[in-house]
What does this fold into?
Amino acid sequence: MPFISSSRVNAASFSLFKRSMLQDASLPLSDVINDQRWQQVFNKHDIDFGSDPDVIYTPAITLWALISQVFFSGEQRSCKAAVIRVASLWAALGRRVCSTEDKRCQGRIKGVRGG
It folds into this structure.
């Protein structure tokens, strides 16, 4: 089960992905859960989004959320469950979790939907 310690981590860094997924180097898939390798791959393919300070979905967070779905079963594999994990991570990091009741968030939702 993906896990993040309560210590502060840089959400834009792929070390978040590594520390969450790989709690012991002897675990299966340890050879593919390499934060530096993932950073190199994303750099090589110019994958760079979410660089604003208050953005939630950076490449590292997106990868973490996507891969976290693999480690769960049933309803916990859903996109909604992954979004809830991201919100939980954000709250654990002391970041503000946006509520649908919040006017700023409603504006963001409207902007994304083209409304």
About this structure: Helices lie at 15-21, 35-44, 59-70, 79-92, 103-113. The chain has a mean pLDDT of 74. Residues 15-113 form one domain. DSSP finds five helices and no strands in the chain.
